[in-house]
Amino acid sequence: MVTIGMNYAVLPGKEQIFEDACAKVVKTMEGIDGHDQSQLYKSLSSEAAEYLIVSRWQDETAFQAFIGSDAFKKVTNWGKENILAGRPSHTTYKED
Q: Do the beta carbons of residue 38 and residue 29 sit within 8 Å?
């Protein structure tokens, strides 16, 4: 198993759009081969809207296949909506 941490900074006033899009992404992940579970977290200690999606996958290959899929592209139009304050960063945590 691997856990993927996906970090996003969201422009002020765009939080609900981002949260709604994330809900669609998490819903889309349900039932995808290799996906275990995903959760969305929002920072309470920052003035900026910062989010973390924690997603558990069977392996990193399954995660990479998902983010390259048409299903993922259909629910992620953040660039078009000018929602993100910067480029997202992803971190992979591998279990031994």
A: yes
